[in-house]
Amino acid sequence: MESYQVVETFVSINGEGKKAGRLAMFIRLKGCNLNCSYCDTKWANERKAPYELMRTDQIIDKIKNSGVSLVTLTGGEPLLDKNIGELIGSILMLPKTELEIETNGSVPIRMFRERDARLTMTMDYKLPSSNMEETMCLENMEELKPWDVVKFVIGSEEDLIRAKEIIDRFSLCEKAIVYFSPVFGMIEPARIVEYMKEEHLNKVRFQIQIHKVVWDPDKTGV
Ligand SMILES: C[S@@+](CC[C@H](N)C(=O)[O-])C[C@H]1O[C@@H](n2cnc3c(N)ncnc32)[C@H](O)[C@@H]1O
Ligand SMILES: Nc1nc2[nH]cc(C(=O)O)c2c(=O)[nH]1
Ligand code: SF4
Ligand SMILES: [Mg+2]
């Protein structure tokens, strides 16, 4: 049985994506291959970040005991772990449990091609203000399912323009559910809505990270 470097687990309302507002069990894995300018979980990516090595069965027990039916696997970058398939498969064996994976868009999601709506990919497209755009795996745009989410986290005017270009180039609104979300505190959220109106982005959904409004934005474990 495999084990994973877990930096935190907690139950909270999901603050992002199409399952926002619902209770979820969060499993946050250590480490990331990117270094986004705005990352709010840099602490989890540090080499020295403390973690608990948890076996698949221990994580599954934790989910079962939580009584929560939605699991959010995040990080760091959860898809970097070469054994992640075992954990994903085991979570999906739990009856009536939905799994959402937060992934950064730089790691191929192709190996998860055979999946139904119980496994949602919530995939970022990293825009210029992240300084990570060149790492994006564009083949992923062809692997999206209609129930997946593509998230553009927007920090600047340049990001807005680039997000629209990418949506148009890959017909993203026809392939998946598309969100615009501000880099927390970096751009006036109303400007994003203005841009959506200007460009008639009728299928894009606007979202603010709910947990940063409910709790201190720097608080972990919520
Ligand atoms: C911390 S990341 C972990 C999962 C994965 N590494 C990724 O980037 O998608 C989870 C989500 O938080 C978003 N995020 C990180 N820092 C943020 C910030 N300062 N403001 C808004 N969203 C942020 C990321 O863009 C991503 O969508
Ligand atoms: N409440 C809450 N919802 C979230 N949705 C995605 C998160 C993440 O960090 O990936 C997150 C998070 O950190 N907290
Ligand atoms: S990819 Fe995700 S975890 Fe990694 S640095 Fe960017 S926002 Fe942070
Ligand atoms: Mg977060």
TrEMBL record:
Pathway: Purine metabolism; 7-cyano-7-deazaguanine biosynthesis
Cofactor entry: Mg(2+); [4Fe-4S] cluster; S-adenosyl-L-methionine
E.C. number(s) listed in UniProt: 4.3.99.3
Amino-acid positions noted as binding substrate in the UniProt annotation, renumbered to this chain: I13, N14, G15, R28, T74
The entry's keywords: 4Fe-4S, Iron, Iron-sulfur, Lyase, Magnesium, Metal-binding, Queuosine biosynthesis, S-adenosyl-L-methionine
InterPro entries: 7-CO-7-deazaGua_synth_put_Clo, 7-CO-7-deazaguanine_synth-like, Aldolase_TIM, rSAM, rSAM_sf
Residue ranges occupied by any Radical SAM core domain in the UniProt entry: 19-217
Entry GO MF terms: 4 iron, 4 sulfur cluster binding; carbon-nitrogen lyase activity; magnesium ion binding; S-adenosyl-L-methionine binding
GO terms classed as biological process: tRNA queuosine(34) biosynthetic process
Positions bound to S-adenosyl-L-methionine: Y38, C39, D40, G76
Binding sites annotated in the UniProt record for Mg(2+): T41
Superkingdom, taxonomy of origin: Bacteria
Cofactor binding, note field: Binds 1 [4Fe-4S] cluster. The cluster is coordinated with 3 cysteines and an exchangeable S-adenosyl-L-methionine.
Oligomeric and partner information: Homodimer.
Alphabetical list of PANTHER family matching this protein: 7-CARBOXY-7-DEAZAGUANINE SYNTHASE (PTHR42836:SF1)
NCBIfam families, per the entry: rSAM_QueE_Clost (TIGR03963)
Entry function: Catalyzes the complex heterocyclic radical-mediated conversion of 6-carboxy-5,6,7,8-tetrahydropterin (CPH4) to 7-carboxy-7-deazaguanine (CDG), a step common to the biosynthetic pathways of all 7-deazapurine-containing compounds.
Protein name: 7-carboxy-7-deazaguanine synthase
Protein species of origin: Anaerostipes butyraticus
Name of the gene: queE
